[in-house]
Amino acid sequence: MNLRQLPNAITLLRVASVLPLTFAIDRGAHVLALAVASAAALSDALDGFLARRFGWQTALGSLLDPIADKVLLTGCFVALWSAGAVPGWLLALVLGRDAVIVAGALAYHRFVAPVSGDPTWLGKVTTALQLGFVLLQLLDRAGLGVPVAVLDAGLVMVALATLASGIDYVVRWGMRALRDGRSAG
User: Fold this and answer.
1) Which of 17, 42, 54, 91 is placed for a possible disulfide with 81 were both Cys, Cβ 3.0 to 4.6 Å?
2) Which residue spans traverse the membrane (predicted)?
3) Residue 50: CB atoms within 10 Å
4) From CA 176, how far away is CA 170, in angstroms rounded?
């Protein structure tokens, strides 16, 4: 393997961690789930650092990284919802935002122009908040006693950021589609 592909390999390992992570959450092995989720979070930071630091960015990596984040977070939110740790409305909001982003990207790619996987600043913040919230939930379920006020504040922050990010993506890419569609026509 070429070192330039190392960030992509790390990203694929993050995707591969989803099944054992969700299985651990489902089985109540919260310490194991916390360890796997923490490793996945660190891998997200590591692959980005390596790609930027050494100029190992690839077109594939720019698409794989956000997909890996979505798969990981979707699995975690579904598993935590199933375990009763996440309310259904928050799961619906997280899944709905991701569905809108993916559907919009596919439509843009099909009808306007190729899509790059460059997330917005708000999208990055939302992903970080969602991941932090998952880690807080796992810390609490692993017996480390996260205060209810912290979990509630995390829930509100995740909900607001997820909603704002979804709206931002729709507006930003909708305007870009209008502009690019006019210039192509």
Assistant:
1) 91
2) 63-83, 145-171
3) 19
4) 10
